[in-house]
Amino acid sequence: MKEKPIRVLIVDDHEVVRMGLRTLLSHKPGLEVVGEARSAKVIMLTSYADEEAVLASIVAGASGYLLKQVRGQTLVEAIQTVARGNSLLDPSVTDKVLERVRKMGMGSADEGLAMLSEREQRILTLIAKGKTNKEIAKEVFLSDKTVKNCVSSILSKLNLTRRSAAAAYLATRASKGGATEPKGS
């Protein structure tokens, strides 16, 4: 009985690296390069609903986290949401993660969070919940444009380039026991 090859997807932003890896790996027995991409967005689809798994996924760079019992249409919408550059969490795990964050209280001062205004901290928390700019605007009673500007400011102050990285930043603070909620929320 012939053993199935290990299937490999190469993801790197440099074409020459992708080409080199494909050449190297395609000549190795037991390996099959099934595709390559400049970048990838990852949605974790799992049975695990504990906050540790969620936090680990976010820190590892996942843009989304869904439980396997999700409906097909919801999964399709999640893929489209992540493809647009947004992040998301399954509502049932969002509640667990937020509850853990709330229980941690206000830890020691953090340089990154200290640079953010209370409004920006509130918006960062909503980003971590997977809210879109439009949803954030509605919740904090600001225009979409103002929220977009705030998100840009947050990313700049934290030296980040993506919303998912901002969510991971907040999740990392939570996993280390740091403050993640702005004063007065």
TrEMBL record:
PROSITE patterns named in the record: HTH_LUXR_1, HTH_LUXR_2, RESPONSE_REGULATORY
Pfam hit, one: GerE
Gene3D superfamilies the UniProt entry points to: 3.40.50.2300
Keyword Protease: no
Keywords: DNA-binding, Phosphoprotein, Transcription, Transcription regulation
PTM-bearing positions, type 4-aspartylphosphate: 12
Keyword Nucleotide-binding assigned: no
Residues annotated as domain HTH luxR-type: 109-174
Domain Response regulatory: 1-83
InterPro entries in alphabetical order: CheY-like_superfamily, NreC/VraR/RcsB-like_REC, Sig_transdc_resp-reg_C-effctor, Sig_transdc_resp-reg_receiver, Tscrpt_reg_LuxR_C, WalR-like
A molecular-function term among this protein's GO annotations: DNA binding
Single GO biological process annotation from the record: regulation of DNA-templated transcription
Name of the featured protein: Response regulator transcription factor
Originating species: Tectimicrobiota bacterium
Taxonomy of the source species: Bacteria, Pseudomonadati, Nitrospinota/Tectimicrobiota group, Candidatus Tectimicrobiota
